[in-house]
Amino acid sequence: MRTAPLKLIIKGLTFPEVRVTVMSNIRQRQVRDRERFLPAVLAIEELIRTGDDCLIIAIDGRTGAGKTTIAKYLHGKFGGNLFHMDDFYLQSHQRTKERLLEVGGNVDYERFKREVLDVIERREVVHYRPFNYHTMDFDAKYARDMVPKRLNIVEGTYCMNPYFGEPYDLKIFMDVEHQQQIENVIDREGTSELDDYIDKWIPKTDIYIERMGIEARCDLRIMYSKD
Asked: Which residues partner with 56 through β-bridges?
């Protein structure tokens, strides 16, 4: 006896309906991102047209504001090299009480300058060595040589630490309202680490932004929006 086709029901929707809804949401997000990131696209197009043979873009800003999202979008559109500040966590011997109290001190900014920014400016190969926060060791699986390219995108909080000087040709500040910020953190990390974000990571970032005058030093400000 032939049975009727199985239908997957999710919140009252059959599987085809769920698929259509998901694809529609993805398309809406893509359209929204294109509109929101347009000022950055236009600024980079102008730099490529008139700028140097080595361009470095900084994307700094608040926790959960979309720094990684816009970095991946711009990298997908323009190519080049993409560097993440999250790959430069402090090593065990650096995690002293004094260092952790330092504004902007909870990343290995010395290594980032030495191994990335200085090397880019010399037009040499970057020997990229991500540091894994969970294993507290360098992640050999993701280590790689990054050949010189004209466009270089640096994303992540603390990438505009004054320690680096002024290496950037374009500086983008990603902003988000607090309630949306919390929702974004939950979407990304779940709720298990939410207290750490509320009590530690978000305040540390906000203090860095305020004391280092990060927003005021940026060329563009892009606000997170779901609409």
From this structure: 152
User: Burial of 215 by CB count in 10 Å (0-12 exposed, 13-18 middle, 19+ buried)?
Assistant: middle
Bridge partners for 172 per DSSP:
59, 220
The percentage of the chain sitting over the pLDDT mark of 90, rounded to a whole number, equals 82
Q: Letter for the amino acid at 97?
A: K
How far is residue 155's CA from residue 82's CA, in Å, rounded to a whole number?
8
What is the CATH code of the structural domain delimited by 37-223? Answer: 3.40.50.300
pTM, entire model: 0.88
Domain boundaries, the chain: 37-223
Of 82, 206, 99, give the one whose Cα is nearest residue 163: 99
- How far CA 225 is from CA of 14, 37, 53, 62, 158, in Å, comes to 30, 11, 34, 14, 23
Q: Which tokens hold the place of 65?
A: 């504001």
